[in-house]
Amino acid sequence: MEKKLLAPAESGLLDVPALRARCEFIASANADYRDRMRSALLAEFKKANSEGRERARELLFSDGSGLQCAARISWLQDQLITVLHDFTLNHVFSAGQASPAARITVTAVGGYGRGTLAPGSDIDLLFLLPAKPAAWSEPAIEFMLYILWDLGFKVGHATRNIEECIQLSKGDMTIRTAILEARFICGSVALFEELGVRFDREIVRGTGPEFIAAKLAERDERHRKAGDTRYLVEPNVKEGKGGLRDLHTLFWIAKYFYHIRDPAELVKLGVLSRQEYKLFQKADDFLWAVRCHMHFLTGKAEERLSFDIQREIAECLGYQPHPGLSAVERFMKHYFLVAKDVGDLTRIFCATLEDQQAKEAPGLTAAISRFTHRTRKIPGTLDFVEDRGRITIAGPDVFKRDPVNIIRLFHIADINGLEFHPDALKQVTRSLKLVNAALRDDEEANRLFLSILTSPRDPALSLRRMNEAGVLGRFIPEFGKIVAMMQFNMYHHYTVDEHLIRAVGVLASIDQGREKEAHPLSYQVMPAIEDRIALYVAVLLHDIAKGRPEDHSVAGAKVARKLCPRFGLSPKQTELVVWLIQEHLTMSMVAQTRDLNDRKTIVDFADKVQSLERLKMLLVLTVCDIRAVGPGVWNGWKGQLLRTLYYETELLISGGFSELSRKERARAAREVLLKALPADWSQKDRKTYANLNYDPYLLTVSLEDQVRHAAFIREADRARQTLATTVRTHSFHAITEITVLSPDHPRLLTVIAGACAAAGANIVDAQIFTTSDGRALDTILVNREFPNDSDEMRRAGTIGKMIEDVLSGRKRLPEVIATRTKSRKRSRTFTVSPAVTISNTLSNKFTVIEIECLDRPGLLSEVTAVLSDLSLDIASAHITTFGEKVIDTFYVTDLVGQKITTDNRQANIIARLKAVMADEADELRDRMPSGMIAPVPATPKKVRAEQ
């Protein structure tokens, strides 16, 4: 049963007669005390406003209508302003009996002029003055404004006469739009009506096309600034694409061009069908409900639906979880579907508007327009024509006569490089019921779709148009399930459907040779990929099973096994697509969370890949997937990891992996280093520094870095520095490298990680080595922050200085971390269940410990402190962040270089790590080393390093 919606006047927000009576009493009781009168009046209005808005909030929860809530708050505001206006004139300025010619008019403009007002929105007012205003007019307006300001309202206001309004409207489209929406509140009705008559006659008449062009250009610029997509996972409900402002733009244009006051009149005019108008109302009501809840929840004019309030808004609106989707994800999917509906309405409205403008053009203009803009035939089709570079339908029955034409429209537009006429897209939207099982199974329709997907031009644009028109989700129902679906995390910037389309766009860009600088290896291998069709299909479908209870890679492979034959792929191609989707996360996870210098990592990955063709395709799919997640997610360091994994695996699969023993390869590397050291060094120095490092160092560190490290250590020795740091930037990799030379210590990585956290540096990887004379040579890689090398070097120098200060005891680690984090509240928006995995099968030499939990400053330092407490020696650390979630992997041994094999010890490691991940180990921070770290016997690392 539907809940009854109470009209604003019936909703109990305000007893207007009672408020007037109380104001009269205040006036009479304080007639001789103006300040006291003002204070009492202010208190009365504050009480009335607070109670009225609280009642509006209660009704919003009761009936759920956002439009009614906005109308009620607008009505409440009207009454407060009217009573204030009358009180001001009658009791403050004794102007209650002024002649009609001297009266002012208070009008609402902007959103308030439409009779809707969000709880935290500005109140836009136009005070309209007569041609000859009375002396009291402006002081009275000032008195009203000060009361409104003291009530806490943000008031946008202007004081003008009619002539000024008309003249300013001619040159300022913002003012013209404000007056278009002007609504009488109180004062002189005659003055308000005169403005309306003159505005219609002198401004509106004959300027419809000019106004429409300005508003659509304004909308396009607003969309551009917002990212030009309605699928951002933290959308702006008011200004974003598919938001309230887009609906307002339609209303402004309709009101200006069709001279209507109510959008319902668009149905009578044939602009919208009755069903489309209902969609307009539902979208408007839903967006207003979201916006009103946001304002009530935050206590301010919050327009961005950010992660930290999405969960609470979903709860306010009554959403419940569903298998595979949380309540907040269901709410956000509904939000994006509504935003898509707004896009549909915009297209339909603009198509009708364009036709109407052409019909209403003056005779000669219309004739010239028909001659210059006549439609042209498109080679190869009789069903579609070109109209000024845009494809449109040749007749009203094109889709009904042959439903394949719905797919063919996008195919012909692609191969001819045509934009879409809004009328064509309007007809597509209205013909979606024709996209049925018969069309999905049609061989020609699937052939055309595959051609669109693998187009050498811009497949992402065509797919996005198909998606926005509703065709893609109908033609591929499995895709329809992920349309508008968001994932409630900080990692993914777009909805799932938008992510997939963007991934296809990245693939097309690589395929067309435009990504040589950003992705040199993908650029190199793409021409050698034998089956680009299978790759394009895999990229489009790789996340198609998101939102299901089952793992989306496994479920997605099942979906692909069903869809690929329908698309016309062979059994061999189908199996390839199925494998790519099932393994689409594997290469990324191995590259970012495993030690690529450990042969077992490469062997295990190669066993899974098995062929060079799969390796190439998986590389490109991985690049497309990461790139399409969102701005800033991809960086050069991830690219370097993928390239390293690719090259190592390629060697193994092709049989090129070195058969020399590890010791023989290390001996050869040492000889190469000896020859590469500067010729002006003494023979003794060259031999000393060539023999300074153990085999693992020589086999994993590049020759260039070995030479650089030798020079760095030699310089520190000459300066008698016990502790030294050196930094280097890698602009292409988007990381900065900090190398630390220090006396060895079991907690060294803990201290370095803590110092980096204190300096605000995000560690992405760590290489840990011990020299033969017992010193630690650790290289920390942190995310780059500044584009300019000189700025980044200064930042890196600051981080290096922080590490030196902590290691030398000049600064105490718990204090510097506390200073860094004291202003940060721990995020309660996201939850990640702490998980610890211990494996002895991922490496032949090391136990691999992987943790997964909610990220926070100082976490790595605390985790490594626990590992040190547990007498574990860390050989390498790999730090991977996915938005709010972190996955850190540590390759460890015990203090005598053995794996951790006993169940009791593994259970203790898991328990201790879970405690610190849950932030239950505050005492660890107090135990962190803060003074000078004395040199200790290097046995622990020596034993591990010599193995």
Automatic annotation (TrEMBL):
It comes from Shinella sumterensis. Belongs to the GlnD family. Modifies, by uridylylation and deuridylylation, the PII regulatory proteins (GlnB and homologs), in response to the nitrogen status of the cell that GlnD senses through the glutamine level. Under low glutamine levels, catalyzes the conversion of the PII proteins and UTP to PII-UMP and PPi, while under higher glutamine levels, GlnD hydrolyzes PII-UMP to PII and UMP (deuridylylation). Thus, controls uridylylation state and activity of the PII proteins, and plays an important role in the regulation of nitrogen metabolism. Has four distinct domains: an N-terminal nucleotidyltransferase (NT) domain responsible for UTase activity, a central HD domain that encodes UR activity, and two C-terminal ACT domains that seem to have a role in glutamine sensing. InterPro entries: ACT-like_dom_sf, ACT_dom, HD/PDEase_dom, HD_domain, NT_sf, PII_UdlTrfase/GS_AdlTrfase, Polymerase_NTP_transf_dom, UTase/UR. This is Bifunctional uridylyltransferase/uridylyl-removing enzyme. The gene is glnD. It catalyses: [protein-PII]-L-tyrosine + UTP = [protein-PII]-uridylyl-L-tyrosine + diphosphate; [protein-PII]-uridylyl-L-tyrosine + H2O = [protein-PII]-L-tyrosine + UMP + H(+). Its cofactor is Mg(2+). Its EC number is 2.7.7.59, 3.1.4.-. One of its GO terms (biological process) is regulation of nitrogen utilization. Signal peptide: none annotated. It holds the Pfam family ACT. Residues 496-612 form the HD domain. Keywords: Hydrolase, Magnesium, Multifunctional enzyme, Nucleotidyltransferase, Repeat, Transferase. One of its GO terms (molecular function) is phosphoric diester hydrolase activity. Transmembrane segments: none annotated. Uridylyltransferase (UTase) activity is inhibited by glutamine, while glutamine activates uridylyl-removing (UR) activity.
